[in-house]
Amino acid sequence: MYLNCHSYHSLRYGILSIDDLVSQASALGIKELVLTDINTVTGLYDFKKKCEEKGIRSIAGIEVRKDSRLLYICIAKEFKGLGEVNKMLTAYNCEGIELPQRPNLPSNFVIYPLNNIPEQLNENEFVGIQEDELNLLIRGEYKKLLSKMVILQPVTFSTKKEYNLHRILRAIDNNVLLSKLPEEEVCKKSEYFRDPQTVLNAFRQYPIIIENTKEMLNQSGFEFAFSTPRNRKHYTGSKADDLKLLTRLALAGLERRYGRSNAQAAKRIEKELKVIDELNFSGYFLITWDIIRYSNSMGFMHVGRGSGANSIVAYCLGITDICPIELDLYFERFLNLNRKSPPDFDIDWSWQERDIILDYIFNRYGKDYVAFCGTNVEFKYRSIIREVGKAFGLPKEELDELSKNPERVFRDELVQQVQKYGKLLEKFPNQRSMHSCGIIISEEPLTTFTALEMPPKGFPIVQWDMHVAEELGFEKFDILSQRGLGTINDTVKLIEEKRGVKVDIKNTTLSKDEGRCNEYLRQGKTIGCFYIESPAMRGLLRRLKCDNYKVLVAASSIIRPGVAQSGMMREYIFRHNNPDKFEYFHPVFEQQLGETYGVMVYQEDVIKIALHYGGLTAADGDILRRAMSGKGRSLSALQKVKDHFFASCREKGHPEELSREIYRQIESFAGYSFCKAHSASYAVESYQSLYLKVYYPLEFMVSAINNMGGFYRTEVYVHEAKMSGGNIMNPCVNRGEYETTIYGDEIYLGLMLLEKVESRLAKEIPEERRRNGDYKSLEDFIKRIPIGIETLQILIFIGAFRFTGIPKNELLLKARVLLGDFKPKRHFQPLFEEPVKEFKFPELKRNVFEDAFDEIEILSFPVSCTPFDLLQTKYRGTVMAKDLTDHHKKEVKMLAYLISRKHVPTKRGTMYFGTWVDVEGNYFDTAHFPDSLERYPFQGGGCYLLLGIVEVDFHFPTITITKMAKMPFIADPRYSHDEDKKYEAQQRIKEDVSMTFRAPYPQENEIGLPRKKMIN
User: Structure pTM?
Assistant: First the structure.
């Protein structure tokens, strides 16, 4: 009876979740159900699983609409029928091919509404009729179609409140007021689950219609085997040839990585290849290798990370750059004979090059077989409240107030309605989008399983997310991008261009455990370096006196929230600095975790302890692993593991107190810890960037600026370049480029940093210069570049015409005389040069600091001087950052410029950690507790006078602030006669603020990690 059911995956139309839909059908004793979401199969596979749980036979269908008009309903006779509809919808979504008025879908039943019946019906075509349409059957044109009619009892909602919610969704979708919503945009009030017998009774005078409906249900089916591997199976065309090629490549890589006589590596390759072959994963490895091969041929850098780095075959193929033997990474963490799904390689490219890699994958493996995973973007309460409010007709002012105070109780009845329905829509799917990095490469055309859609990004997506993909048997390839690799890549290119030096940065032995790099690491001099530049990470490196690769690998993991929050980060720091002041509290910890002083640092450590101390099975270990990596996280499954753990510990005779402590540590890792291979991959990239920073600091910082930095704003990387001996120059139309560039030690800031200069124009200026030579004067520039007076003034203010030798004031007057109210248009080079008109301008004097204030206004930081030079006070502090370790427990007074602050919750309220530079340009850190912040809060970017007590924690000084005050700048000399604008510029100085919303880290006295044996 129920041939036309909608879930909320019929976006902005359906109201019921898959769970609700199936549960309501089950409660009515319905045994057959068809899901026909509008133009999508998003919920279909979940629907099948839920129906099987309830003993309902599920049938697959799709309701096809163009805009809001129902064309027909397709019901698959068998699974391949779904593919027919998917193919038709994909052509419409991705290629703009119109939906046919009458589709050719032989493996489907096609049901037309009364207002869209073709002249002649084929065998598989029917007409759907609803109860309120039965009175139309007295008409001759309908009466003759009785033998081709079926019952339509659509299901869209279940209660009056849900019907109202449906109307609100339709108003949102049509961007109209509820009162103006056309009736044809809304479903009928009868579209809910009615008792099956009631429906049959309504059609009792037309037994042929009832019979047709039952027969259609009997002849339809949805057979599907979940978890059957569906990724592309072979690279070469056969399993045997895949293995032969993989073996040859692995052995060639073995010689390249290890030489000809490394028996340990050769034995491990042999073992891994055997497992890979047994699991039929040779093709998966080869496809990944093929993508890397193309990347290398283009000269791109990549990082293969995640558990894939546990594989020596991946290392020898060049997919990863981590030696699993060196770090004792075991292959079984990545791939073992119990695993049915393919391995998951995570591969990073530069953000500038990722799209080129994606184009290659789509072209190489075929658009019919490759797509991104989809993802459902849900309604979020604060944004949906605006949408619902607009539908109800609330004015913008009220919507602003309501969005800012979502929990406030309003008396206005209309506002209460908006709040009520807004809450109901929270977590509803709103639109489909593209997964950030997950790609599927399928053995069969993807339209076998789903229709494809084309989001604005330009790559097709499937209609379900990564979790459904995994259930269906697809394992995604993660093709990621990051700015850190862009910085490394660009630095290497810049060094070759400017110095003629080729740096083989892919040779990881070049930048691993190198003397000067290790010294920088130990001192935390890592700003600009991937993953190790944040204040927290630099502080950790100093506390550990980290001076080698292996400690860096550990540091990359213990900085993660799970480790830090459990107290294990603090304990690791203590044990690293005091290896003779603790005992392993159980022999298993010494045997399994000796490298990390008995502290669980990696996911693998947790699994080792669960297995070797708790006696859990490998299957339980895998549940833990998946929970920790965020895959298939299930509280009920974790609870079972916990119960097994404690039962097993009691059987083994372990003390209850010790077992509880160990499980506390295990539990704290869930979802946050890295696998060791992941940390090692990050550490390699960190070292690569550090090597370039140490030996080529100016080129490295230029590249960091061009890749828009990392943790900090551009100003900080400009400061680093200056501290490394760079002479920072403002943008220049004759020497500068769109991006920041370097000549010797002179660094010219790029035109791209001028926010108010249009990107197109910023690129055209250097391109025109390359075509026709340097700009000779302001007049010459105006002739060659189509520019308006406002943009030209910005270039003058920033000093981009300083090559003329003419003062800014005179240039500005000249520009206004030459352009006036000129509107930019395309200029052409004249055939004959006309003589330049000479104007006599009055001599205008400029204050020495005017340039600095121009720079602050345009760039948000000064270039021609430091912020300290602009202060009214001449005081510069009594202690410098480099001497803080000598002042443990002493009070110091410092003058400093604010770089960043991080919000951290504590049990006593919000606190901040600040990062600053002193007048010598060196960094230091501060801690601001709630009581201090209440009296002495941050007041935006700028220079502050600080008073506090120095606390040296394992070689790392922090000042606990007791008082602070923001120091005023001198009056802006450009506005010496304007009281309102004299001090405006200081408000443009920025700071980096990061917010943390997590439970507070435990205090040292709360950690309670035993340092003594806890066994008899």
Answer: 0.84
